[in-house]
Amino acid sequence: MQHSRITLYTATSIVIANMIGTGVFTSLGFQAMGLHSGFSILFLWFVGGIAALCGALCYGEIGAMFPRSGGEYHYLTKIYHPSIGFVSGWVSATVGFAAPVAAAAIALGEYLNNVFPALDAKYAAAATVIGISVVHATSVKLGSIFQDISTTVKVAMIIAIIFCGFMAGGKGDFSFTPSEQAWTEITSSSFAISFFFVTLAYSGWNAAGYIASELKDAQRNLPKALLRGTALVMALYIGLNFIFMYTTPIAQMSTANGPVVDIAGVAASNIFGTTGGVIMSGIIAVLLLSTISAMVIAGPRVLQMMGEDYSIFKIMGKKNSKEIPAMAIVLQSLVSLIFIFTASFSNVITYISFSLSLFTFLTVLGLFIMRIREPNLSRPYKTFGYPIVPLLFLFICGYLLYYGFTNKTAESLWGLGTALAGLIFYVIDKYLLKKRAAQL
C-alpha cells in the first residue's frame, strides 16, 4: 500500500507555522523602550532574519547529507557521538516541543476568550491540542491538508493586516530614514538586548529537519523548505513591524507600568477602529492553529526516531497502519496537557532555550567537522557562502548563548541539567542492551 508522504509545500508550511507564533505580535513594545528609530527596529528584524537564513542554509547541507527525521537528534548522532544525539533528542522529546505547544495553545485560548468571554481559556487550549493531535494521528494526508490550509490562511491574514495598515494611513511618529540616531541605536546595548528576543521570534526555521524521512525527495526538498519558509517569514516580520510602527505612535507603546505587550491589539485599534482589538484577537487565535499543528507534526518524529534506535523508548518508535507515530503523538499531547493545566510551561521554555541553542550551535559547527572529516561524502546541497555563512551563524548563536547564560544563569544551568539527565537514560539503555546480549 502506498502511504502519503509530506510534500515540499507542506514542509515549507511547517517551517512557516513553527516560526510565526505570538512573538512578533507582542515584542515591539519592549524594543521601542530602548529604540526610537523605525529604521533601527526594522534593521533589528532584518538582522534576525539574516541569522535565521544563515542557519537554514547550513541545515540545508546537513539535512541533505542525513535525510532522516529527528533533526538535531539525528545530526548530532552522526557528527559527534550517539550520546550527544540522545541528549539532544531527550530534551526535544520530553519538553522541547510539548512546552511550546502548551504555550501556543494557552495563548490561543486567551485570545479566543477576548472574542468569546464565556469561553474558558485553558479548556479551549486543551480541546485544541487534542483535536489537532487526533487529526495528525489519523492521516498524513488529512494532517498535511490541515497544515497547508491553516498556514496559507495565516500568511494571507498577515498580508491582509499589512495591506489594511497601509490603507488606514500613517498615525505613527517613527522615522524610517537611516539617520545618525538610527546608527547610534544600532550599536547600542538596547539593540543587542532586543536582538536576543527577536531571534526567539525567528526560532523554528529548522522545523523541516524533524520530518525528513516522510518528505518527498528529502535531499532536494529539505533545503528548499528551510530557505523558502525562512525567507517568507523574514519578509512578513519586517512588513508587520513596519505597519505596527506606521500606524501606532510611540506614546501608545508604553504605559506608566512599562511596555505594552499587546502591540498588535493597539495597532489593530488604529487600523480597524474601536473593535480592532477584538478583531486582532480573533486573527491571532486563528494564526496559532497552524503553529500548534506544525509542532504536533514535528515533535513526535524525534520520539519516533529514538524509539527505533533505543529499546528504552521502543514503544514510541511504533507506527500505526498508516505509518504514523501515533503513540509518540499521544505522549507529546499528554505532556502538553499537563503543562496547560499546571501553567508551568513558561519556566520550562525559559530554562530549555539555552540547551536548544547549544544543540543548534553544535549542529552548525558540525558542518566544518564533516567537510574536514568526510570531504568526499555526497552533498546534494552545499551551503551558499561557506565558510562565511556558518561562521556568521556561529558568532550570532555564540552571542545568544553568552547572553542567555549570563542573564539567565539559573535557568541555563537547569536546562543543562535537564539535558545531562538524558545521559542517565542513555546509560540505562546501553546497560540493558549489554545484559540482553550476555543472555543470548
Overall spatial form? globular
Report the count of strand segments: 2
- Poorly predicted ranges: none
- Individual helix count: 18
Oligomer: single chain
The CATH architecture assignment turns out to be Up-down Bundle
Q: Any idea of the CATH topology?
A: Amino acid/polyamine transporter I
Proportion of beta-strand residues: under 5%
Helix percent band: over 70%
- How much is the radius of gyration in Å? 22 Å
Report the structural category.
mainly alpha
Taken in chain order, the helices and strands follow as HHHHHHHHHHHHEEHHHHHH
Strand count, sense and barrel status of the largest sheet are: 2 strands, antiparallel
Order of strands across the widest beta sheet? 1-2
Q: What is the terminal-to-terminal distance?
A: 36 Å
